[in-house]
Amino acid sequence: MSHELTQTNTNSKIFSPPFHGGFSALGIEKKSYCRLVYKSISANVKLQSLVRYFSTLNNPAILGAAEFNSDRNRYSYFAAEPVEVFECLNTEKKPLEKLKAVLNKYHLEERDCHDLLRRSRNDIRDSNLSLRGHLKVDEAISTPKMNSGIEGVFTGGWLGFFSYDLNRHIENIPTAEDDICLPLIRLCFYDKVICFDHIENCFHLFAIELPNDKTTGEEKIKKLETCLAAAANGGQTPNVKLGANQINKDFKSNITKDYYLDAIAKTKKYIYDGDVYQINFSQRFSADFNADAYKLFLWQNKFNPSPYSAYIDAGDFQIVSASPELFISINNGTITTCPIKGTRPRTDDEKINKENCAELIANEKEKAELDMIIDLERNDLGRICKPGTIKVVKRRDIETFATVFHAVATIQGRLKEKIDFVDILKAIFPGGSITGAPKISAMKIINELEPTARGLYTGCIGWIDLKGNACLNIVIRTIIIKGNTAFAQTGGGIVADSIPQAEWEETLIKAKALLAGIKAVQE
User: Fold this and answer.
1) Which residues of the chain have pLDDT under 50?
2) How many CB atoms lie within 10 A of CB 19?
3) Residues facing 470 on adjacent strands
4) CA nearest 419: which of 459, 461, 389?
5) Nearest in space to 263 (alpha carbons), one of 507, 515, 488
6) Is the separation of the CB atoms in 471 and 198 below 8 Å?
7) Residues 6+ apart with CB under 8 A from 484
8) Catalytic: which of 98, 192, 341, 439?
9) Is 74 helix (H, G, I), strand (E, B) or coil?
10) Residues 6 or more apart whose Cβ sits within 8 Å of residue 261
11) Is 341 a catalytic residue?
């Protein structure tokens, strides 16, 4: 797709097709009202094949596509060829003002979605004869089911990421050395989305019909059907192997072990002095990378599946995320956050796993860490939620993942009227579980002790639709590929009674699955 560039300065930019005309990042253009079209079908298409096919398209973004294991990853999304790409670079002076204008551009019409299932089965098949054998309309998938669940589904809109270093535009945090130089914000506007429902075992095809669009919503749906057929006909997916699950000399850290232990000592002094209660401190690994990024995503989804996995190819860099952590979900005015605090390794030995899980359940230090973050998140939500609506839905659940056990809390509230997404970011970004408590003091100490800017690490990846709903992960267990180098960063919460050696080992445990994948897909 050809794009022309509209810029207000050199720090933020929006790429858009010519037929949409100009766009002002200052928000002076009137709102565009859009029409949503969707269709539900059955298709004999493997998600791995869709991953491979979408990786060949322009600006692809994939959320999920891993093994289904809970309601938290019921849906997987595939999108490419965005209508617009909005970026704010790390030199931008007012990124949140630009973001507010961008998110305010498109809105859905206040009327029911048009469902192509109203057409007859034969009409749909006759218009897509080449798809026979791969796709079929499933009349058992009812429109009411989709209508009742559509609020929790990404039906098109903005998809991308927010870097951790956006925090300095929210609070008074000094600038750190940024040696990877990803954008502060990168969002793509996708008017076509394939959604796979892991429970219903079917595909939902969504298309947004824009004002003055030369392509109808129905024509966009046909394009998505063509994508499914192309993926089904694309041959076998690459065979990814497990490889060695260990960290070796091929991987370099941005700090030495002595630096790490010294930083932990300084952190504990800040805690003893009463400046903070908890700090999340991290180290970053890097290694040469000369393989296809989508193969690394397939590897992570096979051997390290997680509920908030993501793949983004921005051309100059790629992101492969195996995040287990939800930053926020916004669904029809209800906001939910699920911080993680507490990790133990999971192995092939069931006896050891039971011991590790039991130790995590009983560990008072881990309980205290999570309680601190729950209080922090409740306070943050209190800025944007209606009084009396904030509740701790689950104080401490132990969740099982491929390589670790995690302790997870769930906090929820009802948003105040006229609160928009930028207001939410200002109130709660970045997440408390990956900064510390109190948050502002913790971020200043992180900035002092970590040698490089975090960039995307501990920011968030996800979607924002045209009705104000959203779902974003916290960027942990994530690999950034840029300039034939792969970067992976891991950390942990430090409190007064933390054991430095144990904290060091925890960062290695968290990194193992990521680094193993980097090595395996290049063998």
Assistant:
1) 1-10, 16-28, 112, 116-133, 136-149
2) 11
3) 330, 464
4) 389
5) 507
6) no
7) 288, 289, 290
8) 341
9) coil
10) 500, 501, 504
11) yes
List the one residue out of 328, 306, 302 whose CA is nearest residue 421: 328
Cis peptide bond upstream of 430, omega within 30: yes
Pairwise CA distance, residues 272 & 467, whole Å = 46
Residues facing residue 292 across a β-bridge: none
pLDDT of residue 139: 35
Map tokens 């300039």 to a residue: 483
Q: What is the pLDDT of residue 120?
A: 32
Contact 242, 224 (CB under 8 A): no
Instruction: Provide the token pair at 189.
Output: 């506007």
Q: What are phi and psi of 103, to 5 degrees?
A: -70, -20
The count of other CB atoms within 10 Å of the CB of residue 39 is: 25
Nearest to 309 by CA among 318, 299, 317, 320: 320
> 340 near 401, Cβ under 8 Å?
no
Q: What is the pTM of this model?
A: 0.88
HSE-up of 13 (CA within 13 Å, CB side)?
11
C-alpha angle 456-457-459 in degrees, rounded to nearest 5: 65
- Kindly state the tokens that stand for 520: 């395996």
DSSP secondary structure, 499-511, as one string: -HHHHHHHHHHHH
Cβ burial 266-282 (10 Å sphere, 16+ → b, else e): ebbebbeeeebbbbbbb
Question: On the CB side of 200, how many CA atoms lie within 13 Å of its CA?
Answer: 21
Give dist(CA 119, CA 393) in Å, integer. 42
- The residue written with tokens 């930083």 in the block is 263
Q: What 3-state DSSP class applies to 386?
A: coil
Helical segments of 315-398, H only: 350-362, 364-382
How would you class 353 by CB atoms within 10 Å of its CB: exposed for 0-12, middle for 13-18, buried for 19 or more?
A: middle
Active-site residue (options: 325, 366, 377, 503): 325
Show Cβ contacts of residue 274 under 8 Å, excluding neighbours closer than 6 positions: none
Q: What is the pLDDT of residue 1?
A: 36
Q: Say how many CA atoms lie within 13 Å of 33 toward its Cβ.
A: 3
CA distance 29 to 209: 19
For residues 227-254, one letter each, b for 16 or more C-beta atoms within 10 angstroms of the residue's C-beta and e for the rest, the string is bbbbbbeeeebeebeebebebeeebebb
Residue 125 pLDDT: 39
Whether the ω angle into residue 438 lies within 30 degrees of 0, i.e. cis, is: yes
**CB hemisphere CA count around 187 (13 angstroms):** 26
